[in-house]
Amino acid sequence: MSTAFDHLQTFLLIIFFVYFCFSIFFKFVEMKANTLMNELIIALVSGIAIVLCMTFPITFSTGYSLNFLQIPLIIGALYGGRRVTVFLTVILVTYRLFLNSPDTDTTLLIYCLLLVSLWYIIPLFNKAVTMRMKVFLALLASFFGLFSRITKFVLLMPENITMDYFIIYIASFIIQPIGILFFVVFNENSRRNAILSKVIRKFEKLKTVSELAASISHEVRNPLTVTRGFIQLLRDPNLTEEEKKLYINFSMEALDKAEATITDYLTFAKPSLDHVERLDLKKELDYIANIINPFAEINNVMIECQNDMNIYITGGKQQFHQCLINLIKNGIESMPDGGKMHIHLQKINEKAVITVTDTGMGMTDEQMEQLGTPYYTTKVKGTGLGTMVMYNSVKAMQGEIKVESEVGRGTRFSLFFPVTEH
């Protein structure tokens, strides 16, 4: 009893090995390798399983032995194709000769019959679209395998047919189809999940491109339409010099807006750092505070800056300025009735941490999850490009952003950058 249990454990380990290898194959390898490489991997996995099944059969006290080598043989044939089927049959017969097993001639006849049946089932299996059809063909192949074994003993060795052998083959009729059914269902699910993941990623990219295209076309078309209108007005010979200057200024402002939108888009599309240098964060934050302070005063926002430490990071100065200015500007605009903004610089665990806290409207959890995604903004007239640029610039500088917010109480952005020694 203990020996039979040990053999059963070995059989289950072999089945787990085959299933695990096929699952890894369908999930990570099949889509990336060519047809020949896929066939080689399937032949290798199935061949090893066949050898293991023949090396460690389940032996009963009556002297009869049972192995389930047809399970990896049929699975490898259905998913590998005709060439793999021939290769696995050759491995099976060759290894049987190596083991000096009796009745090699009859065994060769059995698997030649099975090879012929698989030769016609494999194309149908590959063309099958539904899971039900694939399961039916796999069970049909399993039936042909069991039928070929029964044919061997009924026609060639009828004297060996006893009640014990009858019980063993009843067990084969139950276990082998269930094993093949298990493999086909789980392998097809793994295969379809891998295909579905690839399709979803493709559609996500297309969706991103379409949203960006809609955003860019809308934001660029408006200033160009304004510019065209003022240029048409300049054709009027009765315009005064003051009116001409006014129209030209309006046109230039509209073109500057279009240029800024395109620049933001290009920065998002290629968040690389053209000029990398060592940045003194104290000095850079003072510079940014001086730039943004007039805008804050107009909006009745008081900025408190706490940056007494000299901390250095590596990055692009222009991208860093653009990132912080966009972040602070968004915070100011979130306080339409005025408020306070606190900018704090500190060093935590070899990371430079810049915290920007406002007392604005705050955001919900759903809004925070959408931050940095294309065409998403919480502002009425925003495009979402500024936030995308900020996230991509920080990422290009090997940093990260964490956001904490509460509706009605404000938002805190924490920017983490690797520290560079002075």
TrEMBL record:
**Biological processes per GO annotation:** cell wall organization
Report the locations given in the UniProt record: Cell membrane
Topology class, membrane: Multi-pass membrane protein
EC number(s) per entry? 2.7.13.3
Q: Which residues form the Histidine kinase domain?
A: 215-421
Q: Which UniProt keywords apply?
A: ATP-binding, Cell membrane, Kinase, Membrane, Nucleotide-binding, Phosphoprotein, Transferase, Transmembrane, Transmembrane helix, Two-component regulatory system
Instruction: Spell out the protein name for this chain.
Output: histidine kinase
